[in-house]
Amino acid sequence: MAQQQRRRPPRRTRPPGVWVALLVGCICVGTYLVRSQRDVPVPESAESGGSAADIADAESGSAPELAQFTAEDDGGRALVEAHERESTEATTLPPPRPVRFGPPDPFSAVEARIQSGENLFATLLRAGLPRDQAGAVVAGLKDQLDLKRLRPGDRFTGTLWLDEELIEGTFQHGALDRFRFRRDTETGQLVAIADPLELEDRDQVVQGSVESSLFKAIYEAGESPRLIMSFIDLFSWDFDFGISTRPGDQFKMLVRKRYVEDRFYDYGPILAARYSSGDLALSACWYPGEGDHDKTAGYYHEDGSSVRGAFLRAPLKYSRISSGYTLNRLHPVLGIRRPHRGVDYAAPWGTPVYAVGDGVVIGAERMG
């Protein structure tokens, strides 16, 4: 039986017109893309290297064309986003930093204040001083000052050379004690020199009118309770400010104030004082005497008599009267009304009590 050979089907061939059409289509698409990229509007200021403001104006004017272009082609959208990013960076450039020429500053300042529970050595270490320099400061200062007397708020300031050697420094103890540190030119050791601050005396007038109490009137005039008590002491032999003060009373005094570097430090003596209450007018002047040990130094009236009398109007330096003399007082403990034939003075703990002569304390206890 003769073998039958299988015939292969004839190959299909595409007509040449198909290849021509595909080639023409690719050429058309490429030409379209090239022309579309050339037609992207670019601001004239960007081409000529204009300012950031000109670039922003050009962008705002061509925004519709760019939006239409980005909607037609993804490549154009990327180009527009890159252009916007560059323009934004151009308008938000940081200011130029100052350029410093030359080597770094070899000096550095240090400053610290003594805190509660801290000694001087720990304060200097916290300020940034090396241990050997802090020890030199303590060694130089212990001959000038009792280091146990240091208190919180005392301040040290200094200058370091290359963060290693202390060139100079100042230690402020309290308001008046000041010590300066210098390098000895021969030995190179750190030496402490006492340089106390000087007090400046200024005489000022303080005056006013009483509305409710003398204490409140002088306090509202800007003065401290210490000056108030000194003024009251002047006339304590002639006037009881606790029970005799009336609204409308006038006071005036010339007081010496002491300043340190234009900062108030303390009160000096009251040089002259005057108090008027109704028809009563009290005055006193300060007489310094001939020397420090002159017993005639003190306050005198205008007629030359001493303001110190035989008896005091009040037995102590009180701050207020807690309960006055009355026949109808509400008892603070019993809650009933009963006479109170006396005057109760309120004063801080430790206030001295004055007497015209020797006496005997018959009782001392806390009541109420």
How would you sum up this structure, described in words?
By secondary structure, the protein is α+β, with helices and mostly antiparallel strands. It is 27% helix and 27% strand. The strands form 4 sheets. The chain has a 5-stranded antiparallel sheet, with helices on one face. The radius of gyration is 47 Å and the shape is elongated. 13% of the residues are buried. Mean pLDDT is 76; it is low at 42-72.
Summarize this structure briefly.
The protein is an alpha+beta fold. Helix content is 27%, strand content 27%.
Q: Helical proportion?
A: 25-40%
Given helix and strand content, the structural type is alpha+beta
What's the average pLDDT? 76
**Fraction of residues in β-strands:** 25-35%
End-to-end distance: 146 Å
Biggest beta sheet summary: 5 strands, antiparallel
How are the secondary structure elements laid out?
Blueprint: H1 16-38, H2 44-47, H3 52-61, H4 63-72, H5 74-91, E1 107-113, H6 120-127, H7 131-141, E2 155-161, E3 165-173, E4 177-183, E5 190-194, E6 200-209, H8 214-220, H9 225-234, E7 250-260, E8 263-277, E9 280-287, E10 298-300, E11 320-323, E12 326-330, E13 337-340, E14 344-346
Helix pairs in contact: 3-5, 4-5, 6-7, 8-9
Q: What keywords describe this structure?
A:
five-stranded antiparallel β-sheet, single chain, 368 residues, 14 strands
